[in-house]
Amino acid sequence: PPSGYAGRARRHSPPAGAPGALRGAPARRSARRLRRAAAMGAAAEDDDMPGEIDGAGLVAESTAWASTITRTAKACVVLRTNGPRAFDTETAGSSGGTGFVVDKKRGIILTNRHLVRPGPVVAEGVLLNREEIPLHPLYRDPVHDFGFFRFDPKDVQFMELEEVPLAPDGARVGVEVRVVGNDSGEKLSILSGTIARLDRDAPNYGKGNYNDFNTFYIQAASGTKGGSSGSPVIDITGDAVALNAGARNKSSSAYFLPLHRVVRALEAVKRCCPKDGPGGRWRDPKLPRGDLQTTFAFKGYDEARRLGLRRETERAAREASEEGVGMLVVDTVVPKGPADGVLEAGDVLVRINGTLTSHFVQMEEILDDKVGKKVSVEVERGGKPMKCDLRVGDLDSITPGTCVEFAGGVVHALSYQQARNYRMEVGLVYVAEPGYVLGHGNIPRHAVVVSVNKAPTPDLASFAAALRGVKHADRIPVEYVLFSDRFRAKQALVTVDYKWYGPPSYLACDNTTGLWNQKPVPL
Fold it and tell me: Are 412 and 404 in contact (CB under 8 A)?
């Protein structure tokens, strides 16, 4: 993906209550230290090691890395994906990247969301021994840049697969890492780096494109480029401590996605594997994902004080997390969402359901457990405490999984991603690809259709209903607005053509097969 933007440097570690700071993390870190020591010690005991202590340590570390990378390479998969239809933030076309096996028994591959794609996708994977396997989309997160492909392990006939364990707690400042993947289309590249930050803002790929939010990113100077998206970021023990997601082209900075929410999703996806084996029909991986349709930004205590954070609140936050250096602040609110008219930009988030919340992982854990229920939200606005009750929305319900194909064009409900990008209501009729008929009416991509044939179209169902009775060669008016000029509706007179493209049809995603089923729109 294109480069992100450099944010202001901050130092931050997960506070108490966040994964990485609680529930057995010290024990997991001790186990990781033991594995590292064992790897280094085994290499140092080799009879061919030099006799000098310093030289032996360097050679031992090099040998340990070589062993780890050899094992990891057998889990990496070069991805070739084709999107036959434009959908949401993605256009139709082909792309390449990297994935890696996280469960070789069930055949699950982890990669980036923009490779799994939000719409129809045809994909194949190429293993280290040049063996090709067909892939099927299994899950893509509604917000964060990760998703899963699945394959049948029986399709791998000539190589012993490996899998990469996920260790989100292993990401720490100063840890030396390797990015193993299809960097620059080279099939297998190994890039080194050292983790420098754990609290970078999510990279911004531009308005109208996919952008992650409500999460920190990890930054390291590894110099990744196109093709390395979805690569594992491994430490010397072979554990994946992050997922490569993007980079800055004008520098060597690379941006990695933390794995806390990935681990949760993987455990849920594993439970969807059929009992007769991964080659059968998978169950729909329904993960409860809650959201307030609000984008939060992390601000240091100095900035939060200028926005109205009280001293006593700051004191309580610092006591709750000695390593914490800031608070979450409301950045934007989607119109007509759960928080519209209640929260405002600049509000400092203090507590959710009575829990002091200063980290994205804390916030998501609470919201994911309260989908469809109300939560108590405490904020401070201009130095004054405020408390409100908000109903947590279901991210799956506002993530489009159906579209209408109309004369070569693709129309679907406005996604949360684009609603957030353009400050519009979720669910409006969005033109992902104008095609022949809408294109001849000069209706561009990213337009929002307001009415068809003088019938209002507030959602996709009403758009399909407005096409009833419309015949081939009919001339119908279409009213639409553009994001750049949303307060002025425009008119277009289009000529319907069903001869070359056929009548309009629905495409609906079946998450159990990864396919998009087609059925005609009733006319």
Answer: yes
Amino acid letter for position 370: K
pTM here is 0.86
Per-residue tokens: 377 = 């939200």
Give me 218's structure tokens. 């990890």
C-alpha distances out from residue 440 to 8, 73, 434, Å: 45, 49, 9
> In 178-204, which positions are buried (b, 16+ CB within 10 angstroms) versus exposed (e)?
bbbbbbeeeeebebebebebbbbbbbb
228-511-124 Cα angle (round to 5): 35
* Residue 329, phi then psi, degrees to nearest 5: -125, 140
Lowest-pLDDT range of 38-47, 118-127, 453-462, 479-488? 38-47
Residues 6 or more apart whose CB falls under 8 angstroms from that of 222 comprise: 177, 179, 191, 192, 193, 252, 254
Instruction: Fill in the amino acid letter for 316.
Output: A
Active site (catalytic) residues: 114, 145, 228
Q: Quick one: tokens of 298?
A: 């992390």
Residue 1's pLDDT is 43
Phi, psi at residue 25, to the nearest 5°? -60, -40
Residue 242: pLDDT over 90: yes
